[in-house]
Design brief:
This protein has a single domain (4-168), classed as Gcn5-related N-acetyltransferase (GNAT) (Aminopeptidase, 3-Layer(aba) Sandwich). By secondary structure, it is α+β, with helices and mostly antiparallel strands. 22% of the residues lie in helices and 34% in strands. Strand 1 and strand 2 (9-13) form a beta hairpin. 32% of the residues are buried. The longest helix has 15 residues, at 100-114. It has 4 helices and 8 strands, in the order E-E-H-H-E-E-E-H-E-H-E-E.
Length: 184
Amino acid sequence: MDGSRADRLALRPLRSSDADALFPTMADPEAMRWWSRAPFVHVGELRDHFTPSDGSPWRSWAILRTGEDDAIGVVSAGRKREGVSEIGYLLSRDAQGRGYAREAVAMLIDRLIAEGHRRVFADTDPENRSSIALLTRLGFTLEGRLRAEWRTHIGVRDSLIYGLLAEEWRRPEIGARPLSPPGA
């Protein structure tokens, strides 16, 4: 997604230096409530987390307002098997409520489908109403509940699995242009 752009947003590969802009959000207990890990304590810890590791099935991109270089969030895709990826996303508090998450996740889905993915899914906490609403608006279907799936910083939690098949994907009208094919 190098240089992938929508009208209001751009996605670029996540850099360790994005930790400076995203640390206030990723250190915030309320913002990190639904993550499977506790909030970050030190910006250096977040920089290390953002440094790509060889062999990781996860790829991450910084969400940027068009024309700016400070990250306002992150979208990620983790390859689970051929043609199937799990997605994740987080937006800074001051960027929420403007449709940026929907736009950025739609750009990510476009990319994954262009790469040949047949299925994209997300794992979310049953109490994470914002994430559930986002996934539903994007056309994801609730596929199931995994009981006591995660031991997290807020206790043992269930997971809801939302899935989207490539043939079900209908880009919402949000002003974003489809991504060009990989390598283009």
